[in-house]
């Protein structure tokens, strides 16, 4: 697996430190709020969410949605499909969507619009990685871990063709691996 890696962008330690900072910021911002539901976007966000919620010192519930637009490719299909919907009722709840990466933004745009129609109290977004160079639609992101350059990345939950999610750091892939 490590032979496929071009360069480490963020080490395990750098990720842990940034996740702790994000958790503190979120804890402060949801100071008097009840009914916070943290929604992870499967599968990529699962590892980030697991670390992040343990740094948020507020009562909260966790739920997951699975949507997929990349499949086995490095290019978004542009069509977002719901593969698994929420288990919880989220009417009148404060929602924090947790993403591993915002690239074209198509996944997040679809998700926020879908969740808004369920009469939530508020919706905010936290992503570990933001790749603004590739954005195809305009959307506000409330919490961003790191900005990244326009390269295909893997690790810490993020895959290429379902591989590399278990790398503990975030890295770019050698182009011969996916071209
Ligand atoms: O901003 P976008 O261009 O829409 O890309 C971002 C989305 O793509 C990836 O998910 P993917 O569809 O690969 O599913 P996965 O999390 O199961 O890998 C990633 O986890 C984000 O959810
Ligand atoms: O850079 C990426 N890597 C893996 N999956 C992704 N989904 C959107 N962008 C990426
Ligand atoms: Mg993927």
Automatic annotation (TrEMBL):
Keyword field: Cytoplasm, Glycosyltransferase, Magnesium, Metal-binding, Nucleotide-binding, Purine salvage, Transferase
An annotated Gene Ontology molecular function: guanine phosphoribosyltransferase activity
InterPro entries with a match to the protein in the record: HGPRT (IPR050408), Hxn_phspho_trans (IPR005904), PRTase-like (IPR029057), PRTase_dom (IPR000836)
Pathway in which this enzyme or protein is active: Purine metabolism; IMP biosynthesis via salvage pathway; IMP from hypoxanthine: step 1/1; Purine metabolism; GMP biosynthesis via salvage pathway; GMP from guanine: step 1/1
EC category name: transferase
Location relative to the cell: Cytoplasm
Annotated SUPFAM superfamilies: PRTase-like (SSF53271)
UniProt-listed GO biological process terms: GMP salvage; guanine salvage; hypoxanthine metabolic process; IMP salvage; purine ribonucleoside salvage
Domain Phosphoribosyltransferase: 9-160
Cofactor: Mg(2+)
NCBIfam families cross-referenced by the UniProt entry: HGPRTase
Record-given protein name: Hypoxanthine phosphoribosyltransferase
Organism expressing this protein natively: Alkaliphilus metalliredigens (strain QYMF)
């Amino acid at each position: 697996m490590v032979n496929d890696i071009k360069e480490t962008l963020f080490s395990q330690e750098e990720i842990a430190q940034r996740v702790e900072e994000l958790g503190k910021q979120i804890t402060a911002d949801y100071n008097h709020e009840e009914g916070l539901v943290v929604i992870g976007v499967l599968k990529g966000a699962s590892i980030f969410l697991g670390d992040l919620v343990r740094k948020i010192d507020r009562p909260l519930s966790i739920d997951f949605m699975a949507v997929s637009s990349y499949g086995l490719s490095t290019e978004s299909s542009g069509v977002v499909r719901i593969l698994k919907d929420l288990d919880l009722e989220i009417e009148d709840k404060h929602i924090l969507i947790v993403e591993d990466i915002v690239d074209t933004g198509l996944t997040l745009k679809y998700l926020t619009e879908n969740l808004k129609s369920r009469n939530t109290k508020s919706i905010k977004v936290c992503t570990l990685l933001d790749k603004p160079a590739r954005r195809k639609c305009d959307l506000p992101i409330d919490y961003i871990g790191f900005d990244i350059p326009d390269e295909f990345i893997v690790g810490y939950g993020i895959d290429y063709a379902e591989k590399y999610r278990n790398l503990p750091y975030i890295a770019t892939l050698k182009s011969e691996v996916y071209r």
